[in-house]
């Protein structure tokens, strides 16, 4: 690997921007015994060994990188990945002591499934406690989601029975005695009703459209629907299409364009929901992701990875939650660590047009000095950012993610993604799996990932000058974002490298859609909140029932969504509050065509007397609060009458939109 020193800047891992030569036509896999010989491995750097492995005819690339999926790329294009690995090892920054991974005790099947049940908010199935939230969650599951929960709970109970630890409830006591605990074989191929988002005819049309799209993959723009559960949609598709391997020519690696199908409820971003509702979205997303992989007969095993205990102070090696806790003492609305935002700003100032910006390594001595100063002075606002250049900022940005106690993305899911890509499904299916994984991320990880992808979008927008394409960014950042401290063979590491780079590539390509919450998950959250309210609501006494019956006498509830004892607002009229504007309240009559932007326009018209008021209303959004949703920022294109019928008890407030 050539290294040039130019003015204190070390240029590493740079290769020609021209298209690399195609790989040999029929490579064969190397025997693992050769990879285990210590004499030959120590003498050859990892980068060169993997490069030789990619180009040698006696070795083979992973199956999915040849012709089975659009992840296929020229073998030489992965050199950036291995050179980044070698650069990490050779150019050790030396600013922190080597952290010893905590010994992870291997878990059996029952313990893994118990951890999964806790992660999805169903710990009550293990403890046996009665909790409204757990009951409400179970009542909203689709058939495939319920099947996934049954499978994990059955494994957990069978393991406990073998150990003779304690008596456990049968799965039929939870899901009903008439339901079979088997997974997907018992699910009939009928349209979906349970998610409340699709009618039988629409579901059948969606499946038919999917089959047509399978025949003509390279379309200009493929429409995606978020209305129907991904796992339910897979079970409706014929197996020949679900498991069909799609062959792609090498030159067809350009990712297709997707367009999200608009609905009358509009599209909802993750930041548009309240923290309580997003917690439920995470639980449902993990259940749905598990059911999704079950449809492909792929086990989403969360095997324990080696963990490193994070630091309690400083910047590098500190968990994201600790960094955010410290930053919120300065700004309560912070969602992305402030030091990371500073790194973004420094690169954007003068580095977006710098050729090979993330391949460059700054002066090692300066980087080490800046790291020490950041750890000591950043939280006290005493670090002088003007002396740092974009090269050092880019190096420390990569080190920031690499030294997190746990990787930004769940590396334990990579084996399942490898198997999925080896099956060679359409990129749409890979996107759906990635979409659910993003929705299941903790808030800190998801918000940070969103800010990172937005930043990389600015980098790739200057590709003609900095020579950093989407694939270049993906291969360089993959070892920093999907790092694993476990030992792997060369063949296994090659699979991990290709998959991690391809996942980041998908995130960069489809980042505008990845942070949109699927409509079927929002519908489940609404039903979950309604079920929780019903379970918590105390039973009325006989006197109250008789009194209510007297009041209701002669009143037809089908004519009005608001009973007279609940509200004096007529049907189809909402009262919108805007506490930060001059016009603080307004009653608005809805019709079938009233959208969120129409209500904002009415307030803008009423508050248009001053320029400051005009500026203020432009930064406001309409929120739906209460009832069967915690807080929901409405899409300006959403039809308010539809939302009104779904949530008649909601309050309507205009206030500034929350931002990541």
UniProtKB/TrEMBL annotation:
Sequence ranges assigned to domain Rho-GAP in this UniProt record: 318-515
Pro residues: compositionally biased ranges: 19-28
Classification via CDD domains: RhoGAP_ARHGAP18 (cd04391)
One Pfam family hit: Ubiquitin_RHG40_C
SUPFAM superfamilies assigned to the protein according to its UniProt record, in alphabetical order: GTPase activation domain, GAP
Keyword terms: GTPase activation
InterPro entries: RHG40/28/18_ubiquitin, Rho_GTPase_activation_prot, RhoGAP_dom
Chain spans, region Disordered: 14-47
PANTHER family the UniProt entry points to: RHO GTPASE ACTIVATING PROTEIN 18,19-RELATED, RHO GTPASE-ACTIVATING PROTEIN 28
Protein known as: Rho-GAP domain-containing protein
Taxonomic source organism: Rangifer tarandus platyrhynchus (Svalbard reindeer)
Lineage: Eukaryota, Metazoa, Chordata, Craniata, Vertebrata
